[in-house]
Design brief:
The complex is a heterotrimer of chains A (178), B (261) and C (400). With 261 residues, chain B is of the alpha+beta class. Chain B has 9 helices and 9 strands. Chain B has one domain: Alpha-Beta Plaits. Chain B is 32% helix and 15% strand. A 3-stranded mixed β-sheet of chain B has the order 8-1-9. A two-stranded antiparallel ribbon of chain B has the order 2-3. The longest helix of chain B is centred in the N-terminal third of the chain and has 24 residues. Chain C has a single domain, classed as Formate dehydrogenase/DMSO reductase domain (Formate dehydrogenase/DMSO reductase fold, Up-down Bundle), CATH 1.20.1630. Chain C is built from 14 helices and 3 strands. In chain C, strands 1-3 form a two-stranded parallel sheet. In chain C, α11 packs antiparallel against α12. The mean pLDDT of chain C is 93. Classes of the chains: A mainly alpha (178), B alpha+beta (261), C mainly alpha (400). β2 of chain B pairs antiparallel with β2 of chain C.
């Protein structure tokens, strides 16, 4: 499905040249939909994003920036009700990852959700120089979910046990939740 | 309670539930075992009441009431390389394709120590020591190198400019610089070219109520816990048997303690 | 003393464009080298997780240290009221800004993430000496800029002394700050010394003046302006004193380190068993960079400008060698994880780290010198930095 993205130009940190180019092209688009650059917004797997799409387009950098500080520097990784933070890049990727021929599309591909729009808007992102670009367990590397058991320590007589674990398993704590 | 975040995630990820329950079983299993080995068993029970998990759940900030630490028992006959492997797997390390061996990242390494005079030798795992007065945090010009409220020292890669001054300052050589473009990182450990990185005590696992990967893999030779809580088993063990810090003379008060060095 | 006239260098000449192209090309090569390093990542360099700072840092710190020293001549004129140095004060101030710019370019282009320069300018950790240096460097440029203004704009001439004094104090703090980058590193035995900061100050005097003398003699030679012996002799005598002072500090530094058992091993490493570092120390730093220049500057048999130029070049090479030994040798020597024990690991604990500078690193460093000289070339053609003549009857305040 190819819908035309109505970019709010004033919010985007474009160069003046880029602005002029886009402005010209969107005027052209208004009259004749065949002209000018187009962007395809790919379909996603989730039912609903954290904000309506129009607002998301505008505010996603703020959300990401705000919550990365909370997550990394303060250790706050979920909302009070336990749901993921609105600005969790991990969640963005989980819902918005695009599959092509049964494989997730990576960041070096123009079809990647973030790339498709950012390329259109000529705004470079460096998130994925460090962050994983597709959902976990889907690449060559099988981390966490596949490997947890692998290095679970089940040797009898161990006491590699923390307070947290004890609290974790104590039934009374378990029961008063949910 | 367990993590409600985990639970929520499990709706979308079927495998998660199985893993979660297997982890619970493991802890139940080892608690019985722990009762035998950790003396006194009652202490464990008390501490369970002293701190509830809500202190450590995903939707709580890291607390300055807590100081996470580790106690490494080097007298245990453990293959420390298992810890290294677990760490590499957890953080997706060793995925460099161009870097020379001396340019590759190592969060945890096995150091062999030999006394020249007596011939006595031993091995121990060395990772970021999570110092209380961490030199890397002091020297970082942008505040990228930081210490969380609960004592975990880590790098905020959003701010790191790659000046490597923290690597110059660290007395433990705990830090590595990413010398090339990386792809296929793990979800929980973003890493990329031009930034400095180091052991972060598996901070996402801790926030998630799990033990650090090396602790899990250590067959009980590494104890993880709250150094601020006198009732925690790490504090109890330290109080009873003592422990040493590497380069304690530098007075950095590392969070990682060792026995048998 | 005749009246002093400053005038721009004629820019529309073949010679000027030749120099402009030469220095421009060197700068461009340096920048391309940096791009190559950044594009691929640092794996293409000799740097690694043991030798963290490499050749670019040697050049960068050399240029930054020399920048502060190049201001000496202006300080002697304004702060210590030596009128003989007054004609040189403008060039001295401008050269110090140019050297600092060249050094900072190298330092910034070697960052892992030079694209995040804005982060370094907006997020500060005031516990870090690096953060302080960011302010010291930018502040230095601003203060010396104002200082130059007061010298070159007649209505503000009366403020020159105050501006000069501020710049003088600022530069002492700046070099202390640069030296402290290393002095604050408790973890590395080679750096753990309070002597580093004053040693860096005296090194700045020597390297900066050597660079200044070369630029002065070079620019007067190629613009066919007259440069009398009076001024050259004063400067070269002063340079000799500074070289001797650096030598003295180097001796004290190593002897005190030999005396304390804690630092003995690393000092012996540099002085005898350190391979390339030992060679650089004895042959390049001590013999070529200190003793030979002293001979060239003072021996009656070598009293000509070619020899002074040679001496200045040798002092610069010796200075680079000295910084190479301090910066890279200090990192190559293994850190003491367990003092007194033998250690080994997969992470190169307990062994002398290997480091071989790669071509791009070296080109980036040279590029910094290119940037410095490019700025100097443009500046002397754009503004009135150089007196039209420094013949003895003009330069010597005691001549009739």
């Amino acid at each position: 499905m190819g819908l035309h993205l109505n970019l709010s130009l004033h919010k985007l940190p474009l160069t003046i040249a880029g602005l002029a180019f886009l402005a010209a092209s969107s005027i052209a688009n208004a009259g004749q939909s065949e002209l000018g650059p187009k962007v395809t917004i790919p379909e996603t797997s989730g039912e609903q994003c954290v904000l309506p799409a129009a607002e998301m387009r505008r505010r996603h950098p703020d959300l990401l920036k705000h919550d990365r500080i909370q997550t990394l520097r303060e250790g706050l990784r979920a909302e009070k009700d336990g749901s993921p933070l609105a600005g969790s890049l991990k969640q963005c990727v989980n819902c918005h990852a695009i599959k092509s021929e049964d494989k997730y599309v990576r960041i070096d591909n123009d079809e990647h959700f973030c790339v498709s729009c950012h390329k259109y808007a000529a705004v470079s992102i460096d998130c994925f120089q460090c962050h994983r670009d597709i959902p976990e367990g889907s690449g060559n590397f099988h981390a966490l979910t596949g490997s947890k058991q692998h290095y679970s320590n089940q040797v009898p007589g161990t006491y590699s046990l923390t307070i947290k674990d004890v609290a974790n398993i104590s039934p009374e704590v378990n029961s008063d939740d949910k | 309670m367990t993590n409600n975040f985990d639970e929520k995630l499990s709706e979308s990820q079927d495998s998660e539930q199985a893993v979660e329950s297997s982890r619970r079983n493991f802890i139940f299993g080892s608690v019985a075992a722990a009762g035998l080995t950790v003396a006194p068993g009652m202490m464990l029970y008390q501490t369970a009441n002293a701190r509830s998990l809500s202190d450590f759940s995903l939707n709580e900030k890291a607390s300055s009431q807590v100081r996470w630490g580790m106690l490494v028992d080097t007298t245990k006959q453990v293959d420390w390389n298992k810890c290294v492997d677990a760490c590499n797997k957890e953080h997706g390390l060793n995925n460099e394709t161009h870097s020379r061996d001396d340019q590759k990242t190592q969060y945890i390494r096995v150091v062999d120590v030999k006394n020249k005079t007596t011939g006595y030798s031993m091995s121990l795992p060395v990772m970021c020591q999570h110092c209380e007065s961490a030199p890397c945090v002091d020297v970082c010009p942008t505040g990228a190198s930081m210490k969380r409220a609960d004592g975990i020292v880590l790098v905020d890669r959003h701010r790191c400019i790659g000046c490597r001054y923290c690597m110059m300052a660290c007395p433990y050589k705990a830090r590595s610089f990413v010398h090339e473009v990386l792809t296929d990182q793990t979800e929980n450990t973003p890493r990329g070219k031009g930034c400095v990185e180091s052991c972060n005590m598996c901070v996402t696992r801790i926030d998630n109520g799990q033990l650090p990967a090396c602790v899990e893999a250590s067959e009980g030779a590494i104890i993880f816990g709250d150094l601020n809580d006198p009732q925690s088993d790490i504090s109890q063990l330290l109080a009873k048997h003592g422990g040493k810090q590497i380069r304690a003379d530098l007075k950095l008060n590392p969070g990682v303690h060792y026995q048998g060095i | 003393m005749k009246k002093l006239h400053f005038i721009e260098v004629e820019g529309n000449t073949k010679g000027f464009f030749a120099f402009l192209s030469l220095f421009g090309l060197i700068s461009l090569i340096g920048i391309l080298a940096a791009y190559y390093m950044e594009h691929n990542g640092h794996w293409v360099t000799g740097m690694n997780n043991q030798v963290i700072w490499g050749t670019p840092h040697v050049f960068a710190i050399f240029l930054i240290v020399a920048a502060s020293g190049a201001l000496n001549v202006a300080s002697i004129s304004s702060v210590f009221s030596k009128t003989a140095y007054k004609p040189l004060a403008r060039l001295s101030g401008m050269l110090s800004i140019a050297l600092l710019s060249g050094g900072l370019v190298v330092l910034l282009l070697d960052l892992g993430r030079p694209d995040r320069l804005i982060v370094a300018m907006t997020e500060f950790n005031f516990v870090s000496i690096f953060t302080w240096n960011i302010f010291l460097y930018t502040g230095f440029m601003g203060i010396v800029g104002v200082y130059l203004w007061t010298m070159m704009d007649r209505p503000y001439n009366n403020l020159t002394k105050k501006a000069g004094l501020t710049a003088f104090i600022w530069r002492l703090i700046l070099t202390t700050g640069t030296g402290s980058i290393f002095g604050f590193l408790i973890s590395r035995e080679a750096y753990d010394s309070a002597l580093l900061a004053p040693m860096f100050i005296i090194m700045s005097f020597s390297f900066g003046l050597a660079f200044f003398l070369l630029v002065l003699m070079g620019s007067y030679k190629y613009t066919q302006r007259e440069l009398g012996d009076y001024i050259v002799n004063r400067l070269k005598n002063l340079l000799g004193v500074f070289v001797a002072a650096v030598l003295y500090f180097a001796i004290v530094y190593h002897v005190t380190n030999l005396y304390s058992a804690e630092h003995r091993d690393v000092t012996l490493f540099v002085l005898s068993g350190g391979g390339i570092y030992t060679f650089l120390f004895w042959v390049v730093q001590i013999f070529m960079g200190s003793l030979l220049p002293l001979f060239l500057l003072y021996s009656p048999s070598t009293q000509n400008r070619k020899m002074y130029s040679l001496a200045s070049v040798l002092i610069i090479l010796g200075g680079l060698a000295q910084l190479y030994v301090i910066i890279i040798g200090g990192q190559a020597y293994p850190m003491e994880l367990f003092p007194g024990m033998e250690v080994s690991s997969s992470f190169y604990d307990g062994v002398v780290a290997s480091y071989a500078p790669s071509l791009p690193e070296f080109l980036l460093g040279i590029g910094g010198i290119g940037v410095t000289l490019l700025i100097v070339t443009i500046a002397i053609a754009a503004l009135k930095f150089l007196p039209i003549s420094l013949a003895d009857e003009i330069a010597n305040p005691h001549s009739k």
